[in-house]
Batch of 3 targets.
Target 1
Amino acid sequence: MITALFSAATGMNAQETNINVTANNLANVNTTGFKRSRVNFQDLFYQNARAVGSSATEDTEVPTGIQVGLGTRVVAVEKIYTVGDFEKTGSDLDLAIEGDGFFQVNIPNGETAYTRDGSFKKDSMGRLVTADGNPLVPEIVIPQNATKLAIGKDGTVVVYMDDESQGMEIGIVELARFGNPSGLKSLGSNFHQESVSSGAPILGAPGSQGFGTLAQGFLERSNVSVMQEMINLIAGQRAYEINSKAIKTADEMLQQTNQLI
C-alpha cells in the first residue's frame, strides 16, 4: 500500500511540471518567434514479484509474470521547432525565416546567441540590433542617408540613397542551423545557445541548401496553439487530481487496516 502512495506522488510531481510548461507556452502565445515546449514522461522501475518466463512447473513457464510499477518521472522538456504563422508588419526592419534557420546575435558577454525573432531595430550607429540593442551577426550597418532598405529572400541587404534609383549592397544576413535544434540551451529574451546536444552551428545564406528564405516586412508568431494548450492544461489537471485521489484512497485503505489491529 505504501507503494501506491509514492507512485501517485511521482505522478503529481510530473503533472506539476507538465502544467508549468503548459502555462509558459500560454504566457508566450504572442511572443515573436517563440517555440512551444512539450513534456516527455518515462515510467520508473518495476517490482518483480514474479519474473516473466520463470518456471511454473517442470514443463511450463510463466507467460506474463507480476510486475508492479513505481510511478513516473519527467525525462525531457523538448522544444518543438515547427514554423509559426506569419504576421505582416510592413516594417523594412522586420524579418521572418520561411523554413529552417536562426538569426545570429552578439549578446553582452561576447558570445553568439540564436533567435527566430526578426523584429530588428536600427541603433544610433545604424546597426541592425534586437529590441535590447544586441547587434546582428554578421554586422549590418545602414548608412544614415539611406532612404530605403531592401532585404532579399537570399539575405542580400541593399540600400538606396536619397533619390538614387541604383541600390548599393551593404551585406548579407547570414543564418545558422543545427543538427538537433531541440538540444539548444534556452537563455530567455528569445535567445538560444549551442550546447553539446545541439551540435555546432552550420552557417549559410538564406535559401541555400537546408536553410529557409527571408521574408521582409513579416514577423513569425509563436507556434503555440491556445486550443491545444488548453486541452493539455485540462488533461494535466485531471491527471493531477486522479493521482491525489489515489493517495487519498491508499491512505483510507491504510486507515482501515490500522483499525483491524
Note: The first strand starts at residue 37 and ends at 43.
Target 2
Amino acid sequence: MNEKQPPARELAPPVGGGRLHSLDTYRGLVMFFLMAGGFGIAAAARKMGDDAPGWLETLSFHVTHPEWISHFYGAGFSFWDMIQPSFMFIVGVSMPWSYGKRTELGHSFAKRARHAWTRALILVLLGVFLQSLSRPETHWTFVNVLSQIGLGYGFLFFLVGKSFRLQTLVALVVLAGYWLLFALHPAPDGTTGWTAHFQKGTNFAEHFDRWFLNLFPRSEPFESSSGGYSTLNFVPSFVTMLFGLMCGEWLRQGDPTGPAKCRRLLLAGAVCLALGLLVGYTLCPIVKRIWTPSWTLFSGAWCIWLLAFLYWFVDLAGFRRWTLPFVIVGLNPITAYFLSIATKSWMGKQIQTHLPGAWFAGAAGPVVTASLVTLAFWLILWWMYRNRVFIRI
C-alpha cells in the first residue's frame, strides 16, 4: 500500500552530506550573469548615444558599476553591484557542507586546515594570474574576486562550526575596526564631514596599497587604482563570506523546519538592511568599491534574502525544472569564471570571424556577440556536466 507523501513545501532538504539544490542554483545564476557580462547592453546603449531609449539606459545602469556611491535615493543600487558580494557570500554558504563532509570522512582538523589554506593560496595566485593576462609582467594586485576570496578564506575556516554568538562578535569587531582605520586616517585638506574619509584616491585603503603593492617587483611604482578598488577590501568582504557561513550552518541543521529557516533568513536580511542604511547615513557611505562596512551590511541583506527565496522556491516548494541550465554552470564555477575572464574577448572575435558580419552590425551588435559568447561558454559547461567533469580547487 502506497502511503501518501506530504507536500514538497513541507519537506526540508537533506541535512549532513546532502546537496542544497538552491545553493547550486544560486551559484549558477551568479556565474551565468558574470559570463554574460551584461549581455552587451551597456555597449549597445553607448552606440546609440542620445538616441538610446530610457528603458535601455536603465538596463545599462544595472549591468555596470556606479562610479563610487552605490546607493541612490535611499535604497537603490546597481544589479551588477551584487555579483561579487553574491559570489563571496556563496563561498561561505558552501563551507559547512564542504568541511562537514571532510569531517565525516575522518579528516583531522590539521588536514582540513591545510586544505583550506592551500585552497586560499591557489585562489590568490589564480587571481593574480588572471589580472596579469595581456600584460608584459606579473601584475601584482589583489582586487580580483578570486584573490579577495583567497585572502579571507583561510581565516574563515577557523570559524566553521563555531557558535553564532562568536561569529556575530567577529563580524562586528572586523567591521568596526575597518571603519576606525578609515575614520582615523587624515581626510584631504579643505574637506569636511565624515564622508571625506571615504573619498576615492585619498582613503586609508588606497594609502595602504601605495605602500603594500610597491613591495612587489614592478616596472613602474603603483600610484592608484583607476576604479578605486583596494587590497584591503578582503577585510570587510570576509564578513560577507562569514554571513554566508552563518546562513549555511543554519540551513544544514536538522532543526528547525524548512519554513522556520526561511523566516530566520528573512529576519537576518532585514536586520542587515536596517543596520546598513543606518550606518550608511550616519558613519560611512555605502561604497561598493572599497567595501565599506555599510556596504557589507547593505549588500549582505540582499544576498541573504535571495538565498531565502531560492531555498523556499527550489528546495521547499520543489520548483526545480527551470534550474538545470544554471545548475550546470554552478557545478563548475571556477571553469565558468576562467572562461569569462580569460577567453571572452578571444571567443567573441572567433564568433564574429565565422558568422555573417551583418549579424553584428548596428547598435544590437554587442548584444548579439555577448549572447553568442555566453551560449558557447554554456555549451562547454554542459559538455563537462554530461561527462561528469568538475574542476574544483
Note: The CA atoms of residues 26 and 264 lie 19 Å apart.
Target 3
Amino acid sequence: MNKIKNLIYLFLSLSFSIIIGAAVYEHLVIWPKAFNSPPQSLSMFQGEFRLNSAIFWQTIHPLTLILFIVTLLLYWKSERKKNIVIALVGYAIVLIVTFIYFVPELMSLISTKYELSVNQNLVDRASLWETLSIIRLVFLIILAFVLYSGLTKSSTQSK
C-alpha cells in the first residue's frame, strides 16, 4: 500500500509540474507574440485554425485537484499532510483568482476584433495581465517546492 501511496504523491507532483511547465512555455513562447501588437497579434486565437490551450487547462486542473484530494486523504495521518495542505490551499487560491480575473480578462483580450493599428489600451491591459500572471507562476513554483519537500518526510502514519 505504501508504494501505491508514494506513486500517487509522485503523480500529483508530476501533474503540478506539468502545470508549471505549460505556464512557463506560454510565457516564453505564446504571450510575447500574442501581446506584441494587439489586436493584430491576437489573431493567433481567432479563426478556424486558432490556438486553443483551454482544452489542456480544462483537463489538467481538475485532474490535479483530484490527485491533491486523494493524496491528502492517503497522507492525512502522516508528516506529509502539512506540505500537501499548504500546496492545495495555495493552488485553490490561484485557481479562484484565475477564474475571477485571469480567464475573463484573457478571453476579453483575445476576442478583440482584428485591426491593423495597435490599440494602446490593449497593450496596457495585456502587459498588466502578463505581469500578474508571472507573479502567479512564481507563487505556483514556490508551492511546488513545498509539495516536493513533502516527499522527504516520512510517509508512515504519525502518532
Note: Residues 2-152 form one domain.
